[in-house]
Amino acid sequence: MRVTTGTLLLLTGVMHQLVGLVLYREPLSEMVRAGVVASLDGDLGPRAAAFWFLVSGWGFMLLGALARAVERETGRPPPSLFGWGLWGLGVFCVVPMPVTGAWVLFPLGLHALARRRPASAPPELPREFVDGADHVDVKTVESEVSLREFIAGLMSYQPAWMTALYRVRGGFVRLLGMRQLTVPRPTRLRAQDVPMRRGGAAAFFTVRHAEEERVWVAGAEDSHLDAVLAVTVEPGQELPRRFHVVTVVRYRNWAGPVYFNVIRPFHHLVVGAMARAAAKTPRLA
Question: Which of 97, 139, 211, 229 is the most exposed place for a label (fewest CB within 10 A)?
């Protein structure tokens, strides 16, 4: 039986309370001797620290029980916002006080994010590129351009803010001990130069599958994960047509989910901007 995020949070709260009862046994004993009622009035020392330590433990247990109930009732893990919330709480606690047990919130947040079920890929994308994926997301836009024109606009979009994000990414991957890729230079890809054969190169992607006016699949491999960027066109549509930009990720080792879940908000920002820019690509005469 797979351990749920709610169960882990509940156990974290229980352990937190046990540690608090041992760590703060003297202040807690003083509160009992003082009659408990109003035993914290004006106290900002050990008694107050003991009180709020145990309050936070109750909070973890209640949050864990709630998440566990939701997971059991729906059969699904908590929403992604829940995992990011645990990360945010961890940052809020760890930054001003590095010597704290709040570090445990980071793996708990990663556990919640890693258990999210991948989104459904459009049927035009062959199943071989989706089966067994750890993450799938889809950005949908409408445009009157051809598939080649759309891909050219997608791969050519790289404003200054995106280049800056690539540079920040470079520093982060070095912290994880991963291979540093060079920052891609902005290039202008023409529609007629879009590779449509397996093995063709487009920026740092390699084409894995392509069908004119239907689907284009490219991938990039690294030691920590395998990433696929695909573009599909819904068939049988009048202009404007609906394009789906699909990202598929498979983790290869422990660094994969750590890396991807940290950059995930920026990934959605970048791919969404690329898709919108591609939709506005001018049509060839």
Answer: 97
